[in-house]
Amino acid sequence: MKEDEYCELDFEENILQSPINRREFLKITAGGIFVLFTLGDTSVLAQQRRSSGRSGTPSDFNAYLRIGEDGRVTCFTGKIEMGQGIVTSLAQMLAEELDVSLETVDMVMGDTNLCPWDRGTFGSMTTRFFGPPLRAAGAEARGVLMELAAEYLEVPKDRLIAKNGVISDKSKPQNQVTYAQLAKGKKITRRLKKEAQLKKASEFTVIGKPVKRTDALEKVTGKAQYAGDVQLPGMLYACILRPPAHGATLKKVDTAPAQKINGVQVVQDGDLIAVLHKYPDVAERALAQIKADYDVPPAKVDDKTIFQHLLNTAPRGSTAAEGGSLKNGESQSSITVEETYLNSYVAHAPIEPHTAVAKIEGNKITIWASTQSPFGLQSAVTNTLGFSAENVHVLTPFVGGGFGGKNYNQQGVEAARLAKLTGKPVQVAWSRKEEFTYDPFRPAAIVKIKSGVTESGKLALWDYHVYFAGSRGAQQFYEIPHHLTAVHGSGWRSTPGTHPFRTGPWRAPANNTNTFARESHIDTMAEKAGIDPLEFRLKNLTDQKMVRVLKTAAKKFGWTPSKAPSGRGYGIACGIDSGTYVATMAEVEVNKKTGHVQVKRIICAQDMGLVINLEGARLQMEGCIIMGLGYALTEEIHFEGGKILDLNFDTYEITRFSWLPKIETVLIDDKNAPAQGGGEPAIVTMGGVIANAIYDAIGVRLLQLPMTPERIKEQMIKG
Amino acid sequence: MKEIIQFKLNKKPVKVTVDSDRMLLWVLRTDLGLTGAKYGCGEGYCGSCTVLIDKRAVRSCILPVKNVKGKEVTTIEGLAKNGVLHPLQKAFIAHDALQCGYCTPGMILRAYSFLQKTPKPTHSDIIKNLDGNLCRCGSHNRIVQAIQSAAKEMKGE
Question: Which of chain B's residues have a Cβ under 8 Å away from the Cβ of A83?
Fold first, then answer.
């Protein structure tokens, strides 16, 4: 699928070649056995690169592994850990191919001095695109070790066996050598050239097993370090003066009252006015003393009028898919349905706000940042502050949630600028209010669908237009002879004047919107055709993978056919994201007086090909489902022009414990299929499945996300 | 106004000379260098700054440091005893009850406080008591399971 291409999923065109080239790399690294590789080393991506004509990866290498002289295996990658669990699953892949225990593997992530260039961690791409070359590199390293062992033990290679970091003679097991012994005093560097022989699924001992998170001990003891936990001698905490609304301009400012506070330093550099102090709370208090007058442009749009505004500014659509003729489709249809679906702006709202610490020494700058894109930050600081790339060192401690929101690195550049201006190490940790203001929200979007079904219950017409959500998940997968899918405007690269503030990719960008609209609409068609919604889907599907996940979910759920609304509050929705197939079923209860929805039960079946970490994959599915309840039921940014009205968790409501449904996840572990994405797919069905369940409960169709009690009551009155 | 504030922190006596109106969270994180308690919202809505004052969970981002004078403050760093993890910490690991881990210290300490009063909690007791602590990654169900299994191991201790 086009939208699954690695390059297409890039968030910012911000390519900077790795400051570490091979020559530099060989200079800085210690002894051991190295295998260098890039994402482009396996056929999946190579094929895509040919088709897109663009390369998202450097031509040299963008990751490597080392078998150290102590026998430990280290993977150096620009990917980062933000909760999605790749710190564990990538280590599993290496342990598998190298025949070492998981405990022997260390992950060095998101450090621009140690790790070669990487585009960033997003799009559920790590396992899909980084996994295969990582495994191949592991296999390559194992091959090198086998060659060395054959020489060392004076035994032909085919008589050797590797286990737990030890290579021994099959016929004389006491004749053995460890990886550490083999790596000692060596410096062997291999560039992964061809696809190495990966292990077959039947040989797996680590891949596919449920493995607990390897970072859990640090995280339950408070030892895990996040960017805000980095404290340096002489460091100042900065609070930045912000306008009351996006688009406001500063007229007059008086910083004198802040300057009077002991130990406070005020810095002004063009648009950047900041108050710094050795305590963050004192800096915050001092900032409140600054008197500033702004020109705030009159609000032209708000959260209610935005949809009409977007439709007015929408560009012509680009065709994502088409077939047959819409005219023929219409004439073949006995019933046609036309509907418009809306969704509001949504915040990423990670519990850790954007944070960065910057320190300058001579012509070098070091930045610790909560970022999904450490090399993006390196590039931004290089461009903004005039450091040369090799003198910008970005480190990524644990990231306290990202969900697509931590790709832009504004806070990292702010910290770097302030470190330069003050000559001291500076920490910029956004307040929750700043987080809700400068977060690149998921864009408000509109989907218009006109569809038709024949007398025999077959979909014949599908005319689909999505505005400003983006293309991911827009292409439908039902068997429809006459169809058109048009994408109007991008999910986040829009012309000025489109959105009143910045928008960006939000977990499974575009797909939440597209799946909500498509799956709601499919249910409406099923109802008009007088067919049970599961049966209707199966009748109009030939994609056997989708058929299988739907049947799997239905079996687990105990789905029995009925025409909606049955009063049971059952819902169904399915979707494809990041190569993964998802079918979700829900049972909800709707309080007709208050409009409150309680989701009682969710069953989610997922086919993600080979599952690397059975436990981690389930945890991601559960996370998707629980987070998805928020955008389905409550999450919505209210605003007047550029002024954001939801600035904390009191009005911006994310999922709480009391909302929890009973959740059951089913993984179709297709061990012989390539591993697909896991961090995002299961969230895409959440809007649709709850909308359909609400309809089944009370016969009211919600056309706008989130489905708040107010909107439900309003629809009930409208009937 | 600067004042000398004395209290016990993770079993050890500490003395800080601070403006006593400053919030405990920042005194812990900056003056005392304990960064386990996290800033999440600054207004007491999310619970990631939770610490224990005399074994009761409080939100340190809205608690002036003068309020802990003479009291016993426990942060996540002080929960393990002599390097042995608390049953709650063990249970969070065993149930994979975390993802990004940022809310985890607050969750564990909130659960600790609640289990003191309710040693044999039902599922709905746990949900009710944890409802004010936010987790964005969606580890909620596993957190509930972890607390249930820790409660069994603790047997009311």
Answer: 98-101, 137
